[in-house]
UniProtKB/TrEMBL annotation:
Keyword Zinc-finger annotated: no
Domain GmrSD restriction endonucleases C-terminal: 104-201
Protein name: HNH endonuclease family protein
Annotated GO MF terms: endonuclease activity
Organism placement in taxonomy: Bacteria, Bacillati, Actinomycetota, Actinomycetes, Kitasatosporales
Species: Streptomyces violaceochromogenes
Keyword Signal: yes
Pfam family for this entry, one: GmrSD_C
Xref: PANTHER family: AMP-DEPENDENT SYNTHETASE_LIGASE DOMAIN-CONTAINING PROTEIN-RELATED, SECRETED PROTEIN
UniProt signal peptide: 1-27
Length: 219
């Protein structure tokens, strides 16, 4: 009956109705770190079938017209001193702050773009059942600052695919921030945690009573 009624309405009014009844965009949520960790769903992890190629990256980025991949867009956005951008998005000059190890880097080639929650860990935690398009969106996510982080190659390779029960940044003063950003990324993408990871996050959160977590669910 509702469909029949709608057919009799002017097109302009239908447009207004569609705009006013469309689902609202996800809003950012901010909660204490301890509460955020408690929100993470528990599940057993499995790496069966994982390949890095299941996550297409780096793609043409948020602005395909700029000629830069996601990697270079992140480098440009996170630069402390902006690099010069040449043909084919070649970056020269500039400087960056690698917060994991509190190091200034003055060459883009000395940096890796770290997936806050590594691709393999994401696979273990729920991404194995995603579509290829959803995994590509995850691997190139610039919708949240914490998702992709420009850090020294050595710190990224030391981290590899480990979760906070196995690895934390060498700079102890950033552990609260790192725990919050890890938790925010898992909440943003509705990823699970296993028992060991949850216990580690809970201990870390308890040691960071003033830390909050801000995240926006991915669409």
């Amino acid at each position: 009956m509702r469909t029949a009624l709608l057919r009799g309405l002017p097109a302009a009014l239908l447009t207004v109705l569609s705009l006013t009844t469309a689902p609202a965009a996800h809003a950012a949520e901010t909660v204490p770190l301890t509460e955020a960790v408690a929100m993470l769903p528990l599940a057993t992890e499995s790496r069966d079938g994982y390949t890095r190629e299941a996550f297409k990256h780096w793609n043409a980025g948020d602005d395909p017209a700029d000629g830069c991949t996601t990697r270079n867009e992140v480098l440009i956005n996170e630069a402390v001193e902006a690099p010069a951008v040449g043909p084919r998005c070649r970056l020269t000059g500039g400087s960056w702050w690698s917060y994991y190890d509190q190091t200034t880097v003055t060459s883009a080639s000395g940096l890796d773009i770290d997936h806050m929650v590594p691709l393999a860990e994401a696979w273990d935690s729920g991404a194995s059942v995603w579509t290829a398009q959803h995994r590509e969106a995850y691997a190139n996510d610039q919708g949240a600052e914490a998702s992709l982080v420009a850090v020294t190659a050595r710190s990224n390779r030391s981290k590899a695919d480990q979760d906070p029960a196995q690895w934390m940044p060498p700079a102890a003063e950033v552990h609260c921030r790192y725990t919050a950003e890890w938790t925010a990324t898992k909440l943003r993408w509705n990823l699970t945690v296993d028992d060991t990871e949850y216990a580690a996050l809970n201990d870390l959160a308890t040691a960071c009573p003033d830390q909050t977590v801000t995240y926006t669910p991915a669409t």
